[in-house]
What we know:
Elements (H helix, E strand, L loop, with lengths): L15 E5 L5 H9 L3 E6 L2 H12 L8 E5 L12 E7 L8 H11 E12 L1 H10 L19 H10 L2 E9 L4 H9 L8 H16 L2 H14 L2 E8 L4
Parallel strand pairs: 1-2, 1-4, 2-3, 4-5
Antiparallel strand pairs: 5-7, 6-7
Amino acid sequence: MLTARLEKLGLKRGAWVLDLGCGEGRHVHGLHVLGGINVVGLDRDGPSLVKAREGLAMLPAATATTGFVEGDAYRTPYADATFDAVICSEVLEHLEDYHAALAEIARVLKPGGVFVATVPRAWPERICWALASGPGGYGDQPGGHVRIFDERELAADIAKGGFDKTGRHHAHGLHAPYWWLKCAFWDRRDDHPLVKLYHRFLVWDLMERPWLTRALDAVASPVMGKSVALYFRKRAAA
């Protein structure tokens, strides 16, 4: 279930990509399957990296370098201008100092390199916060979301770091209702019958990818997509 569209990165064979805050590695796995792309997934959560490596072991053999590193989004272990592209998907909303992470991304990205940031879309996210408000709610989880981004403000923040915006799209239109259900039944979010039923639907859709739900998602994503993806190119040095 990819949020960033890998084809929009314009990667050439042998390119190096950093997935900053890779979680369980879905975008790393996607690039690995494409073949010929060197990709590193970095995350601070050890158990997520264990799952990422387990998932990688089930994929075809690599035709380039694919790896995972435990590290800090504010201080990565890479030299300036190392990567041709950086993906930061569903991460910035978790960070207290997302400006520091954006500065680190700009540092390790080559001039002319591509950066894609994806974050929860504002209005579906506000519904989640409203449905499960208060202590222990949706917006009060350890390691959870600490802010709701305004898309234009985030794009402006990124542009200030030496980037030009090149595109955007919304994703996961079928997923917003799932999170609204979870938040509506927050105290039973893992075992409520409606939540479990909708989860089974999403898993079936992910595995089978029938044309009907693909069409529904294409229609729903611009209207109520759970995430927004913003694409940028780093300006060449003067």
